[in-house]
Amino acid sequence: MPLIVKDYTWEETDSMVWITVPLKGVKANKVDITSCEQYLKVSYPPYLFECLLAAVVDCTKGSAQVGNGAVTFKLYKKEPVLWRTLRHPDADDKEIMKQKREEAQEELKKRLEEQQTKQAETKREHEKLAINEMMKLEEQERSRISNIKESERQKATEDLEKWKEEQQILAQKEKEKMLEAQREQVEAEKERDREERRRLRKARAGNIFEKEGKDGRAPPRENGKIVVKHTPRVFPTPVRESQTEQEEEWLRKQAEAKRSIELSMDADLKEEEKNPQWLQDKGNSFFTSGDYQAAINAYTHAIRMTPKLPSLYSNRAACHLKLRNFFKCIEDCSKAMDLLFPAVPQNASSRCKALVRRGTAFCQLELYVEGLRDYEAALQIDPNNKALAADAERMRHIIQATAEV
């Protein structure tokens, strides 16, 4: 049987009630407090304080504080009136107290459920706000990354266009230099021809004056052979009938051939180093071992000897791709494609490799449209290549995602 606490104290005003229940030396963490509209309970075994209030109080405003060896209730009356007594007249009726106790427990249970529901709703709202904030941050990050990619793509495109312009300027200068050298050669030949004609005229004039007779007239010409010298030209047709562009192309090829011959005749080179096929095999061996720079040197040496072999350019492009020299890879693949013309079944595999390597270099530069164009061209050559088709499809998704952003 619990010991009923009766030495409690209380005070009231028209609107509030203060009740102090002594804990009798019991620790605060062992106190169980129940507070409802008309029922109070403080249980701290073996002691028990239980009170049926004289009137109803507002549970949403009241409070119970434990400290200084007592529990202090601060309650707000629903109706501003003096009670005169704390306990209800029916407080001594056990049945009524049992009913009020059960009602208090149900009310307390309901209040806890409402509180838990409210806390759960508040937690969901906080989680929703956190998710929305996270989505905003992710969207900002995606936008930032997209802007960086777009900036880098534009820069790469500008660099590529700048490189193309520089190559065109260099080609134009080389062309002008060759034309100037050809004009100087023609002028020199013409000058030598004019000098020779002047010398011959002087020689003929001197002979005539020496052979004049006494009557002052020139003697009859003697029989002989006249030799006519023409200005030498590289091409058999006269300048006025020549085709300048074709002649310049022919001269360029001849100059490349002369350079190859001069290189192959270098006394410092070993016999196998003069063989382009040996150099290509050497480059392939370097590539297999992972020494890409040595492979580039071998392929470049072979190209100087044989500049018309497309496999040399394609293999060197693969090395540049490994070393992330993407612009050089694109240049070598383009040269290989030029040399692989016309397109025949015998060079289909080589054309497919060159297109895939050039497309990969474009993708590394984030020029996905140009890369997809090369991949699709390679798929037309090898339509059964599943890996190539998957890469092309992935590239289309990237292009579509970039366009949507």
From TrEMBL:
Localisation: Cell projection, Neuron projection; Dynein axonemal particle; Nucleus
Chain ranges of the CS domain: 3-87
UniProt KW keywords: Cell projection, Cytoplasm, Neurogenesis, Nucleus, Repeat, TPR repeat
Residue segments, region Disordered: 93-125, 140-160, 181-223
Species, as recorded: Plakobranchus ocellatus
Transmembrane region(s): none
Protein name, entry field: Dynein axonemal assembly factor 4
GO biological process: cilium movement; inner dynein arm assembly; nervous system development; outer dynein arm assembly
Record field: compositional bias (Basic and acidic residues): 181-198, 209-223
Principal cellular location given in the protein's record: other
One Pfam family, short name: CS
Cleavable signal peptide: none
